[in-house]
From TrEMBL:
<dbReference type="Pfam" id="PF08514">
    <property type="entry name" value="STAG"/>
</dbReference>
<feature type="compositionally biased region" description="Low complexity">
    <location>
        <begin position="90"/>
        <end position="103"/>
    </location>
</feature>
<feature type="region of interest" description="Disordered">
    <location>
        <begin position="36"/>
        <end position="144"/>
    </location>
</feature>
<dbReference type="Pfam" id="PF21767">
    <property type="entry name" value="SCC3_C"/>
</dbReference>
<dbReference type="InterPro" id="IPR016024">
    <property type="entry name" value="ARM-type_fold"/>
</dbReference>
<dbReference type="InterPro" id="IPR048610">
    <property type="entry name" value="SCC3_C"/>
</dbReference>
<dbReference type="InterPro" id="IPR020839">
    <property type="entry name" value="SCD"/>
</dbReference>
<protein>
    <submittedName>
        <fullName>Irr1 cohesin complex subunit</fullName>
    </submittedName>
</protein>
<dbReference type="GO" id="GO:0003682">
    <property type="term" value="F:chromatin binding"/>
</dbReference>
<dbReference type="GO" id="GO:0007062">
    <property type="term" value="P:sister chromatid cohesion"/>
</dbReference>
<dbReference type="GO" id="GO:0008278">
    <property type="term" value="C:cohesin complex"/>
</dbReference>
<feature type="compositionally biased region" description="Acidic residues">
    <location>
        <begin position="1054"/>
        <end position="1071"/>
    </location>
</feature>
<dbReference type="GO" id="GO:0005634">
    <property type="term" value="C:nucleus"/>
</dbReference>
<feature type="region of interest" description="Disordered">
    <location>
        <begin position="1053"/>
        <end position="1079"/>
    </location>
</feature>
<feature type="compositionally biased region" description="Basic residues">
    <location>
        <begin position="130"/>
        <end position="139"/>
    </location>
</feature>
<dbReference type="InterPro" id="IPR013721">
    <property type="entry name" value="STAG"/>
</dbReference>
<dbReference type="InterPro" id="IPR039662">
    <property type="entry name" value="Cohesin_Scc3/SA"/>
</dbReference>
Amino acid sequence: MWVSSNCLYFCFSLTTPNYETRGFCNTPTRGIVSTMSAATRRSTRSNRKTVHYDESSDVEQDQDAYIPSEQDKENAPNHVTKSSTKRKNSVTTTTTTTTNTTTSKKRRTSVTINHSRCLHQQQQQQPQSKRGRKGKGKKRQEDLEDDWEENYLYQALSSPEINVVDLAQEWVETYEEESISNTTDSTTITLLMNLILRSCGSFHLFQPHDLANLESATSTVEELTLAFGNQSTHKFPFKLVPVFKKNVLQFFQHIIEICHEKGLLYPPYTQHSEEEEDSSKQSPLMSYLITWMTSLTGSAIRALRFTSTEISMIIQLELSKIGKSITTNLSRLRKHLTKLADERSTKFKTITSTIANYESQLDTLNEYFDDLASVVVSQRYKDFDPQIRLIVVKYLIDTVIAYPSYFCQSQFLKYFGWLLSDPVNQVRNEITRDLLKLYRLNKNQEIVSGLTQFSTKFKSQFIAMCEVDVDANVRGNCCGILTEMIKMGFLDGKDKHSVIRAFPFGATTKLKLQTEFVKFIQMAMEENVNFVLEKNQLIFENDRYILRDHDVKDILSIKVLAQELSFLVEKEEPLEVIFESAAMSQLYFTKLRLFLDYLLTDIAELRKDKGVNDDEEEIEIEGQDPDLDQIKQLVQLDDLEKLTLLKAIHGIIKAVMMKKTNKQGGVSREEEEEVKSTIITQFIDYIPKLQIFCSKSNNRYKIFISAWQDLIDDKHNCIFNYYIKLDKIDSYESTIVSILQYFYEFSLVDEFQPFFEKLFNSRGLTESIKLEIQRIVDELVENTTIYLRDNQQEEEEQQEDIQNDSLIDMDHDFVLWTNRQKHVIKLCREVSILVQKIKLIGNYVNIANLEKIDDLIYQFNNRILNKFDLNVVLNQWKHNFILQLPKFTQAFIAIIELVFIIGGWKFEKIIDIPQQDQHQIDIELELEMVGDVVSNLIRYIDELKELNEGDHTPGDLGKLIDFKCQLIYQYINLMISFRLFYIKFQDDNDFKHFKVYFRSNKSVIMIKQDLQMELLEMFLIKEVKLANVLEIELDRDDEEGVHYEEYLEKELPVEEESTVFSENEDEDDDEKTQRHEKQQRLLKAKQEQLKQDEIWKLEKDLAVYSLKLISLVKLQLISNNVYQRLKKNAGQLGEVYYKLIEQEKVVENRYEDGEADVNANELTDLGIDVGVDTTIQGEVENAEVVNDNESGVADICNDGDKEQDVSMDLQLELDV
């Protein structure tokens, strides 16, 4: 019974919105004949709900799509393969060859003619006016709606309440009835294919005669693609309506399942037995389905590719489940057959026949798999749409798991390996997550066997992705895969170290990612522990060994852990971060006492546990128990392993202090605090012994100091509080005093910087500790002064020897002068450690009040700064001097920085003196020595003028420029301090000799014109370096030279890395192309990253230096012309620099109001604002630009009374 046209129109209007038809031909489905009963139709159309969906035209390509190699780019419809020819032969056997050929020609002609005729009619009916066109379009749309008959499968599957199994059963029964009638044009196949088209929103559907000839599948899909592409809009319910998509996929799954039960997946048995070997083994139904489904996967319309690909993959998945079932049954029957002795029995023949049938079915399924793999998987895995690539990955991994004996092979797994470098994070995430699911099935021997070759080939890429992938989820999945590889025996020791080295040490790392790496470390450790225990099984079975009260097996696990991680200590990686992580600390925080006992206890105390044999009389002679000696050798720690355990203890105790040990279920806050307090109390008892142990080596003491700087941090509940609770303040002070004494006696300096910073900001800075610091800094200043003074006597004796030596033919004065330079350089480096220690404490303590501090500055000037002559050094030993210039720069600049710190404390002391007491201060005596340092800096900068004119290599020239830049930084810092002090007190002060000092030392409050040009020259050098990396052309003033390119260093090419994607003789051309493209992408990404890092480094350097110059401009120390040059190229030199210049335009406005420039002959005294914008300053400081040498910029600020603190922030002041 047919449904009326009005009813059809009503149903269509509910589910399908209006379309605009513009230049395409519609083929209605009125000619489709259904053999289903009216009752069946009513059952499938009942309880339908309206479905709404919409998506714009989807023909364009995705910008983030994966770009395969040139030889693999195939987006056009696929060509007919040999297997598809077999499918056509199988269909031909069911009909008359002549009739099929004749009708196929007519049908191909029908499709083409209908399409051309519709286009011609539209051109003839096209109106001349827009109004006419609009009216005609509406009429055409209404006519199409009247003629339209919706696909009943599409309507039925749109309902959430539809019984998909019944619908699939009805469709299969209809197909069977149609097959019996020997109908040439299959309406059931047409309904199925049109369901796919309607699921994509196509307004153009197949006719039965369009699908009859499989040879025309490619051209028919091309015509459909052309018509579909001309639609102005289309609906995409398959993607946008989850319920509909779920029903469609289940519908195809059930069709395959039912067809298997009915034998429709396989050709008739009699036909199969008589066919030739190279003929198709497929059934007519599957020939139709696979041919047209795979043809649609090659369409240029993304919606068609998306839908047909997912349906094809779900069909392959269902076939794989059937294949697995058949394989299992076949294996069972073969085993049963081997038990039958009588080959003539009926049971034997029945089983043999069943086996043959199963084997035939497997051959048929394998042919389906080959077709789907060669057309769908091999092409769509590199589709431009990442969502389609995701579909292939998702279903292929499920297929591998469902039927591993066939699919868990390199020919399928290689697609996962190739897509590991997909540019879309979501695709890589899906691949690695699915592979992790597959690797976790390592109890299945078929999967393990299949993954062996794949793991060997791609494990290096998994290791690389653990470290470099930008997606944390991908890194975690890769680490999980490598953890499973350990269980399967695919990783060696070198591979394990590479993974552990990639541990996410960053503070912002996700907890899940760190947890995966901790699991990897645990698995690697457990494997080694089990190996050692199995190797020494007899020893451990006979006796129990203990160290203190710890079982030696527990100690052995710690030993193996130290062995596994010791290479990180050797490479100076922050191993403590691993144990500080929540996942790792949760495993080991309760074993802290075990770590400490194992590290601090003499291994000679290891013994057998005699508790079981107390009644036995045993006489042990030392050295005569081979088992005990062997155990001692097993657990003996070398120096590197001891350092490893020290770092582990540091990480664990820091995690406990910071409460990073994960809360366990049912543990209250009070119980957690009690556990924490117990652990820290135990650790406090071990601290004296631990300190003695660490004091035997600088490397150990570095770790000890690093741990203490975390323990005394108030942010983490300072350990000082626990000492107070335990009434052990004396023990705490004794530990700190011992640390300070180690600082005084040994050469560690930089390692103590964070310790002093935390100490001076903590509640644990007691009076006795302050007195100890005062004593140490007094002795350091005195020792440095004495060393410099004694060294002068040594130099004078050498000079007398030279003058008395008559064998020297050269000028004695010249020899004396050159030897003096050697002596100065040597002396500078010898006192470097002492200077750095004084400077470190001087950052927190007012060392300007020390009794011998002025004598120290005098010795610096007299013994080093006044005698050092760069002209002599560069003329006589340029090459040797430049080789040691980096170390000399560090030592030389440290002296000037110390003078700057002392000067800062002096200025602060003078500023704080009440005006009525100012007459007691002699400015000339207070500042004379500091002013001499400024004069020497001016001389050094002048001696380094015109470096480009010398015969220097680019590398040597770069080192000299860096040295000159450091001198300029120190010069600017001192000049700002003097200038601010002078501005504050120039009009109102009672200091002695104030005017006399500044009148005779104008160099501390003004900058001559030639020196201003030197400061600008340094800016121009930094500017051209940044412009060179940015590849921009700079605007220059007319008087500027063209020699700045000489300061550019040659770029070193980035070498290609072959460690991740190495050559393999077994690779085919496609694999080599894939590997080469991965190498090129990685190389390009690495080059770009290096370039961006270099740009950021140079931009920060330029911004900091410009802030210094702007500060001098505001203080009228340099000409406004310098500022005009700073902003000349501001728009091209980066965002930070541009903001800096934009926010300093107020300086330019002041000069436009008529204020005079500062020149070399006069000084205008103006109480101007010298504040640097806090926004720009914050940006530079947040970028970690401002180092110790640049702290002067942060000091350029004044309040409403123009008062300026020119020293660093005061943390502690000691009255000495």
